[in-house]
Amino acid sequence: MAAVLESLLRExxxxxxxxxxxxxxxxxxxxxxxxxxxxxxxxxxRKEFVPFLLNFLREQxxxxxxxxxxxxxxxxxASAALPGRPGGPSRGSRGARSQLFPPTEAPSTAAEAPLAxxxxxxxxxGPARERGGRGLExxxxxxxxxxxxxxxxxxxxxxxxxxLTLSDPPNLSNLEEFPPVGSVPPGPAGRTKPSRxxxxxxxxxxxxxxxxxxxxxxxxxxxxxxSQPSALDTSPWGLGLPPGCRxxxxxxxxxxxxxxxxxxxxxxxxxxxxxxxxxxxxxAGSLTDEPADPARVSSRQxxxxxxxxxxxxxxxxxxxxxxxxxxFVFQLLTARRMVTAKDSDPELSPGVxxxxxxxxxxxxxxxxxxxxxxxECHFQVLSNLDKGTLKLLAENERLLCFSPALQGxxxxxxxxxxxxxxxxxxxxxxxxxxxxxxxxxxxxxxxxAFHTFKKQRDVFYEVxxxxxxxxxxxxxxxxxxxxxxIRAMMGQLSAACSHSHFVRLFQKQLLxxxxxxxxxxxxxxxxxxxxxxxxxxxxLGRLWRLQERLMAPQxxxxxxxxxxxxxxxxxxxxxxxxxxxxxxxxxxxxxxxxKIRELNGLALxxxxxxxxxxxxxxxxxxxxxxxxxxxxxLRLLAKFLGFVAFLPYRGPEPPPTGELQDSIxxxxxxxxxxxxxxxxxxxxxxxxxxxLTVPWLVEFLSFADxxxxxxDYYRDIFILLLRxxxxxxxxxxxxxxxxFLNKLLLLAVLGWLFQIPTVPEDLFFLEEGPSDAFExxxxxxxxxxxxxxxxxxxxxxxxCPYIGELRKLLALWVSGSSGRSGGxxxxxxxxxxxxxxxxxxxxxxxxxxxLAHAFFHNQPPSLRRTVxxxxxxxxxxxxxxxKATLVADLVRQAESLLQEQLVTQGEExxxxxxxxxxxxxxxCPHGAQALALGREFCHRKxxxxxxxxxxxxxxxxxxxxxxxxxxxxxxxxxxxxxSANITALIRREVxxxxxxxxxxxxxxxxxxxxxxxxxxxxxxxxxxPSHLISExxxxxxxxxxPRDPDEGVSPEHLEQLLGQLGQTLRCRQFLCPPAEQHLxxxxxxxxxxxxxxxxxxxxxxxxxxxxxxxxxxxxxMLLSLWKEDFQGPVPLQLLLSPRxxxxxxxxxxxxxxxxxxxxxxxxxxGLMGRMEIEACLGSLHQAQWPGDFAxxxxxxSNLFLAEPHLPEPQLRACELxxxxxxxxxxxx
Amino acid sequence: MILTxxxxxxxxxxxxxxxxxxxxxxxxxxxxxTLLSIFSQEYQKHIKRTHAKHHTSEAxxxxxxxYLNGVVKNGAAPxxxxxxxxxxxAPSLMARLILERFLQEHEETAPSKSVINSxxxxxxxIPDGVLANQVYxxxxxxxxxxPLVDCIKHAIGHEHEVLLRDxxxxxxxxxLGEDQLRAKGCDKxxxxxxxxxxxxxGHIIHWIExxxxxxxxxxxxxxxxxxxxxxxxxxCFPTNIVTLCHSIA
Lengths: 1228, 249
What we know:
The complex is a heterodimer of chains A (about 1250) and B (about 250).
Chain A lengths: L1 H8 L5 H9 L9 H8 L5 H16 L26 H5 L14 H4 L2 H7 L12 H13 L2 H9 L74 H4 L14 H18 L14 H7 L13 H16 L6 H12 L30 H14 L1 H5 L3 H8 L2 H6 L1 H13 L30 H24 L7 H15 L3 H18 L16 H4 L3 H14 L17 H12 L2 H19 L14 H32 L11 H11 L8 H10 L3 H12 L10 H16 L12 H15 L7 H5 L26 H7 L4 H12 L31 H12 L2 H45 L6 H12 L5 H21 L6 H46 L3 H5 L15 H16 L10 H16 L6 H19 L16 H18 L12 H9 L6 H12 L5 H13 L4 H16 L6 H9 L3 H7 L1
Chain B lengths: L1 E2 L1 H11 L6 H5 L5 H23 L2 H17 L5 H9 L3 H17 L5 H9 L7 H13 L5 H24 L4 E3 H7 L7 E9 L2 E13 L1 H18 L5 E9 L1
Parallel strand pairs in B: 1-5, 4-5
Antiparallel strand pairs in B: 2-3, 3-4
Subcellular location (chain B): Cytoplasm; Nucleus
Pfam family, one (chain B): TPD
GO biological process, one term (chain B): erythrocyte differentiation
């Protein structure tokens, strides 16, 4: 590897040739023969060059970057390996490869133990332990090596270090494993210095088979000396290598020399001591930033060359993760100081250029120079970052200093940029609204199931609200707080149908909550929450930004975060985990798969590149938005599908190896995938819809377990993705190919996927990448979705929040607080509030349809959307109109027919079902009119709407065509629905009307029939019924007692009360039937108390009782109320109930005259029939009474019965003035 | 009438020991409606807290025996009412308890809820005359529970709904009433949904529900739980106003 780099540095080969050599296995004809010869000899190593280069750079920079944010572990980030780093603890949770330094481990061992784990195998005893993936790889190759290699190894034991076992041939070219030994300065006190080996390993041709894991090996242990890659250029190229490569012997010599040189060069500890345990912020203060000066760059030419190679690799997508490399470069750019505090930087003579013997980065100046060189090559990517990042870049003084030209371009890009990325708040939970069409009773097997569903809905939202309230509280545990409730709820979901209902709700809620209102529209303010909306727009903006900063999480996941469930998603994950219901998971997977298929297949508007008039930009806003909605929904769904689907296979234990793995593979390969993602991917690529399909597929795969990438099925997918990745060369832009930002999105998500712990690290470099060959035969239209500018920065940053780490890095540089681990970038939860309207159905065949298609093809896409929109709305309105007119008419007819039927058949009317059948058979034929009416409606309404929505300047012919198409589509839509559903609709409505009518007919026909409102002149000033009931209740309670001696009512009050009752009954405004019933009952109770003379009267003690005349007057008022004003039934028979009559028994002397008077009046006014009263009196005799009372009662009833049937007015009049017979009777 | 939270607490404190009868409430003379409302709310909270202890079979049995002994001594005395006041339980609920127990004894099969309710509404149906009178006395003397009070509450709710409707009509705010909403298939509905939302003191109002009782925190919460969340869950009406006769500021 180093040979390549070296020959490059010696200018033996050109950069272009090298890159060609790496990227394409074939030798380009344009290469000059010398180059070709030099490179072809190294051919077997071709695949290892990029990992080598990346590791080399990380290694070189390790002195510079220990204090910056960690470079992710999977990538060859040197600084990431420092134990006790700020990122350490948080990274620990991220997955296998990221768990370099679990916080629990002591710093000394922490550096090594996980490394072995990473390699999957730990071999080599003692301190000379294998390191990481390299070890594995070497192990594999070592076993295959011919004896010579082994012998060499054995013989080449380091003089100063324990030698390795034969089976553990180390990789000499790996600087991490083999830092020049002598250069390691004594570590700080208390720190164990990791042991090092210097056993050189010959590199043989067989190595081409081995897995180039170097790239992913852990960065060197923190005490990296001013490492000199001298070992590299002296690498033994082993057997079969061309002459020119040095022998191992020579190399060892070099090393020895190197070692002897070292102590003089760097006598001071290189380890940043304060880093080890101390919290970081303090460190930031103790260090001063070193200014970078372009004049002090040590070896420009060399740096330029390496930068060029590096940039070319990035540009050719030979590196796994574009943004990770950018992150690294930004780290270099913002490096604060070299870690080694060398007393004197040895001034390098210009002559040392030709080798890698001297460190690549000798000073901050070198780093910055290199970074700027690389950034210059990637201006295009930079210019497509968000505005905030651009601003920080453009304002970076180092950049200005080293490359004013680049700074100028960045400034221009910044000024021209509209890519403001909103870091919108996740929205508050919005419940999925009750969906009458799916959530109604008809979709459930039984009332009980429906009821259960409703209850579950409530429980679900209760749980959700509780989570919202508590999940941020420390110590609150989802499982503890809600687990049992969730499981109880799941337990109720017995029927399969209930599961599907619940899953639908779950999924809808998921989509609704986990999408934020910002969408992809690029709005900065988004939809503000209520509190903020009170303020003016200006203040609102500031507040919003402030809130954004305040709400930022303390630490974000770095440039390669593991898959997580931020915000609300956490709820759904925890819900699934807590529910731990097999049925639920299965239904959820079914539902998610279905929805993913549906959304993935959604026909999104496609870009017509010819359409370049002014409106196109405006139009694209909407289309981007729609795309963003679909994409984000898909990603969310796929994430959860992946989560649930791979849930049973994931666990904390390390991936199995050996036979166990084989048996698992054999087993798993039998299991059909939950969703046929391979086919979907292939189709997506063919249809040029990768920009839609790949991002969600990545989300899905990010949850795969360790075994998945080994399965043939998924391996195919990964290979496809790798090829796609390689083919997405950003600099190649051509008509009909993928847009820049689309590519950037795909590169970002794929790069992220390749860093996921479960994706095998060798996958990326193992795959032979004949990128030229990646040409899927597209069956799609010329311009698929990939060619449309559907992605904007908002969407990019929403999908890949880790890109924001770049900005954070720059901001840290500005703020000067590099030690702080937090930043103000936060993850964006993507969202949108718009629904995913179904595309209008298209007439597929027929000339007319083709004509319409052709017509739209020539017009701006907005025209098509307008027409389709109009058609959709008018079609829908048409159905509503028909419902409100034709169907409503039919229902009225049905009602009148029913009335007739009831009249002719009498009260009973017959069986309702039969009635309904008769009515429907009469009315449903009229439904046929609906189609004609619908057609007419669409014809009438569509043209106007199209005209109103299209620009005034639309040519007449285009307009009329558009109108016609709209009419056609609307009619088609409306008629399709009507012809399918009109009969059922009529039937349903008539059925409802019939049951309504029958119900109305039912219980109290008379009362319903003649219910009157209040008179026209009524001003509704009558006392309120509630007040009256309450007043009467008070009187009743007074009468019934217990009461204080001074309590009572005045006769005037009673009279007033009855007067008010009359008013209230006459003004029906506030009266509801139950209130009237109670008033009626209370008035009867009152009458009984009057009759029994039980109402305590206020006043002088003599007047304790109501005067007879007053009592009669009050009874008269009551009688008149009953007769005239009550519209509901009055329970008058209660007057003769044993209880009320019994009241008389308590009075002494008993007075029967009022009762007799009342009975007579009742009969006279026709309120009760004589027979009815007689019956009541008769039943009274059956009760048990005191002897004398029973006698008196019998007399009363005889008296009443003996009276003439026709009352005489005169008699009644005189009764009022003279004591009547009842009194006599009572007194007798 | 709007009270501060502190005022409310003070009043509630004072009302804690008052039984829910007409005589005791006579003492709460000023601003009677409000006080009554507060009292009613506090009393209901109290009853909810103590409900269970009155419903143990031992408690029921002892109440019943005390009732029987009482009426044997003097059937005309307010035995049941005094018993309720003594054990600090709502008279109507005590009446129900005793009635249930009585029917159990006399009819062998456990009486259905609807039978009990109907007897409480119309004590004339109670087979035992003395018990009928006792029950009736409890009901008319109870200011917080019982069919009459329920009816009053219902009537107040209805009245306020009508008032609200008139106000909406007067202000020319188009709305959908409960009936229309039911017809549309919503299973739980607020009183009114505004077809065009309005802003009231900076809050967007989508729907209005009238509750003619004192809006203390607890009942707000209870309503939220029983009713409003259901609207929120099951309907399409995000924000709301709840009108209350009296409320804490």
